[in-house]
Design brief:
Elements (H helix, E strand, L loop, with lengths): L1 H27 L2 H27 L6 H16 L2 H7 L14 H23 L4 H21 L1 H4 L14 H20 L1 H11 L1 H6 L4 H27 L9 H14 L4 H22 L3 E2 L2 E2 L6 H16 L10 H25 L1
Antiparallel strand pairs: 1-2
Helix pairs in contact: 1-2, 1-8, 2-8, 2-11, 2-12, 2-13, 3-5, 3-6, 3-11, 5-11, 8-11, 9-11, 12-13, 12-14, 13-14
């Protein structure tokens, strides 16, 4: 019970930090900056979903964004008003072009479909380890993208789906981000998470101890997909239009960079990495346009965001290979430092008394 309470306390500390960002944006930010914070929340949820599998199973995952795409397209196809679908999806199969599903039901169906596909793919993927497993996740990303691009009757192919109900708000995204943090932290500190991380360090020893590695990987994979699915649904219901390029390599490598920079082995790393990369990205976008700073007109420098992303990953790999946070959560680091400080004070007092 004490471990559970510590996990909840640590998750709430991160949740409060994320909640403060959302509340400040809601109260004081202009709509443009609220939009930036909303996208940050969506990316954060996706990064947390990635951390659940990649950080616990220690398998680099390139396919998490495909589940964002599946959930986003599912809710878009189901919830878009039938009047709009008569022109945009007139030839959709299964009668989807003529029906309109209530938004709450559409969200549940989209999540259920995402989880089902994740389970079916996961039963095959969890049999692999290391590089083969990573390549399999990359193949998943490409396959989902190709299906979306070529199933024109259902997805409009390379053209965007429009008319999606714009119902998501920054408050909703903030709440979902906090819930994702709590879920990821509880999974990380659960017996399943502990066994999965132990198995990633020594598969043979874990198997000999009776750890069911494939089952644990499958659970982490499905939970990861569900969290990423939530991110995809929020994105679709906020932007109101989606296209295949929204869920492909650009977003894949951006979210991977966020996790790598913060630290893949902790939920705190996912949160911190998302904040650092998002903040840096916005600064680079500002500098790209050649602003005037202190009377000095800077030249336009297009591509600066790409350079920033590559540079921060390289620097992190050189200076902090395990990420800014490392393997521990922020509350664990704070608790350990507090104990070390107490020991130092006790030792100093003891030495003073002896003298």
């Amino acid at each position: 019970m004490s471990n559970f309470l510590q996990s909840v306390r640590g998750a709430l500390i991160l949740g409060v930090a994320v909640g403060v960002i959302g509340v400040l944006a809601l109260l004081f930010a202009e709509p443009f900056y609220q939009r930036i914070v909303f996208i940050f929340m969506v990316n954060l949820i996706a990064v947390i979903g990635l951390q659940v599998f990649m950080g616990n199973a220690d398998i680099t995952n390139y396919g998490h964004i495909s589940f964002m795409g599946i959930a986003a397209y599912a809710v878009a196809i189901l919830a878009t008003p039938a009047a709009i679908k008569k022109t945009s999806l007139a030839t959709a199969p299964f009668g989807l072009g003529t029906i309109e599903v209530a938004l709450p039901i559409a969200i549940l169906i989209a999540l259920a479909l995402t989880v089902l596909i994740a389970f079916l793919v996961g039963t095959m993927l969890v049999r692999q380890s290391g590089t083969p497993a990573s390549i399999a996740t990359l193949a998943l990303l490409v396959i989902v993208h190709v299906v979306i691009m070529n199933w024109v009757d259902l997805t409009r192919g390379p053209r965007a789906i429009y008319g999606i109900p714009v119902k998501a708000t920054l408050g909703m995204a903030t709440i979902c981000a906090i819930l994702a943090i709590v879920a990821a932290r509880l999974f990380r500190d659960s017996s399943w998470g502990l066994q999965l991380r132990a198995a990633s360090e020594n598969i043979a020893a874990a198997s000999a101890m009776g750890v069911r590695i494939k089952r644990l990987r499958l659970v982490a994979w499905v939970v990861s997909a569900a969290i990423c699915g939530v991110a995809g649904i929020l994105f679709a219901l906020f932007v109101g239009t989606i296209s295949p390029k929204s869920f492909y390599f650009d977003l894949t490598f951006l979210t991977l960079a966020m996790l790598v920079v913060g630290g893949a082995y902790s939920v705190s790393g996912a949160v911190l990495g998302s904040i650092v990369v998002t903040f840096g990205f916005e600064i680079m976008r500002y500098l790209e346009n050649g602003p005037q700073i202190v009377g000095l007109k800077l030249p336009t420098m297009f591509g600066l965001t790409g350079i920033f992303l590559g540079a921060i990953i390289v620097l992190c790999m050189i200076l902090r290979p395990r990420g800014l946070v490392g393997d521990d959560e922020i509350d664990e680091i704070w608790r350990r430092r507090s104990k070390n400080r107490e020991r130092s004070e006790i030792s100093a007092n003891a030495s003073g008394a002896a003298q």
